[in-house]
Specification:
Blueprint: H1 3-30, E1 36-40, E2 42-43, E3 52-53, H2 55-68, E4 70-71, H3 74-82, E5 90-95, H4 106-112, E6 117-121, H5 123-128, H6 133-136, H7 147-155, E7 159-162, H8 176-194, E8 200-202, H9 213-222, E9 226-228, E10 243-244, E11 247-248, H10 253-260, H11 264-269, H12 274-287, H13 299-304, H14 310-343, H15 348-362
Parallel strand pairs: 1-5, 1-11, 2-3, 4-5, 5-6, 6-7, 8-9, 9-10
Helix pairs in contact: 1-14, 8-9, 8-15
The protein binds zinc ion (ZN).
Zinc ion binds near residues 96, 97 and 167.
């Protein structure tokens, strides 16, 4: 993080605290308190990447969450949102990708404190044991979770969900079979592998441009209770509860605190708030009828085009900076997407059965 953006955000955070508190009390009275969903990737103390957080920082964040919010499961958070009235500051914890190091300290910490969480895994990497493409592009090869680790988490009470089969940008897939494998086959495979119903799907990269209408249709018809994006935003009562918006948890501690106390002033000052932008996607979730072009504008780009004070601009720059790792991941995955599109005619779905059969025989 650039030092001046960090400094500006710190100043802005301090100055805006009384106003945030005032708006929060107002939201409590009107039943319009938003719910927060944080997502993490890799909790480890070595080979730091932009999507890695140290064990010490993760523990500090969890302690802060325990004091400031009510930690709930995605199911409970969604149930509260669908009631269109929420007076509690709810927060759910999720993980994306599925890194083995998470099982060393982060997951035991959550289990020990009985904190619910949802763990989204890339099914293909769990089965093959191969490192993620976006890590290999950085010259790193952290191990993905093994099937045994996923089963251990599920047995201990964690909610498991798919993050696609191959961690590709679903918005770039032009083959319906490949899309089916990423959204539907990954759900069926996980359900049989961990022996629990699969309720939620987290889109790789998670920006509107990575969430095509066809994938949303598939998710609904496959029986998912909800889908998770990754471009930020609070979940307000009255929003379509099928679409769950999430914020990065694995950034600086200051940004984590900044997001934990909703920046109401920023939402109110924006001509077209992030809430409205995410409602566009929520509308799409409901109707499944808009074009890819309509949802191809990232929220951060739209925010950057607005008139803003320096402090607001700093927070926008921060949003954009922190979207870069995901953008880099998307760029890194591009060749893989091409391969999948090209290979989909060779009976993609039929490839799934033997690989699952192999793991079933291993027990
Ligand atoms: Zn991911």
């Amino acid at each position: 993080m650039c030092w001046w953006t960090y400094l500006l955000l710190g100043v802005y955070y301090r100055i805006s605290l009384p106003l945030r508190w005032w708006f929060f009390r107002k939201a409590v009275r009107s039943g319009r308190v938003p719910a927060i969903i944080l997502f993490y990737h890799r909790v480890a103390d070595d080979c730091a990447t932009p999507w890695t957080i140290s064990n010490r920082m993760f523990r500090r964040q969890v302690q802060g969450l325990c004091r400031r919010v009510e930690l709930v499961s995605l199911n409970e958070l969604q149930r509260q949102l669908s009631e269109r009235n929420n007076r509690r500051l709810l927060c759910a914890i999720t993980f994306d990708d599925g890194y083995a190091e998470n099982c060393q300290q982060a997951i035991p910490l959550l289990l020990e404190r009985r904190i619910p969480f949802t763990y989204f895994v890339t099914v293909g990497n769990i089965l093959s044991g191969k490192p993620f493409e976006h890590d290999l592009k950085c010259g790193l090869s952290p191990r993905p979770n093994s099937l045994e680790e996923i089963r251990w988490m599920a047995a201990a009470g964690a909610q498991i969900g798919p993050h696609g089969w191959n961690h590709v940008d679903l918005g770039s897939l032009r083959c319906s079979k490949a899309l089916h494998r990423e959204v539907v086959a990954s759900k069926e495979a996980l359900a049989s592998l961990v022996g629990q119903p699969i309720d939620y799907f987290a889109f790789p990269y998670g920006y509107p441009r990575n969430i095509p209408p066809e994938a949303i249709r598939l998710a609904k018809s496959a029986g998912y209770r909800g889908i998770c994006s990754a471009y930020g935003g609070y979940n307000f009562p009255g929003d379509d509860p099928f679409h769950l918006k999430r914020y990065h948890g694995d950034h600086s501690f200051l940004l984590y605190r900044h997001r934990l106390r909703p920046d109401w002033l920023k939402l109110c000052r924006s001509n077209r708030s992030s809430v409205e932008e995410t409602k566009e996607l929520a509308g799409l979730v409901g109707e499944c009828a808009r074009t890819n072009a309509l949802i191809s504008i990232p929220a951060t780009e739209a925010l950057a085009s607005r008139p803003a004070t320096e402090a607001f601009a700093a927070t926008t720059v921060l949003d954009k900076e922190f979207s870069d790792p995901e953008t880099a991941e998307a760029a890194a995955a591009t060749p893989q997407k091409g391969n999948i599109n090209a290979a989909c005619d060779s009976l993609v779905l039929e490839e799934t059965a033997p690989s699952l059969a192999g793991f079933a025989s291993r027990g």
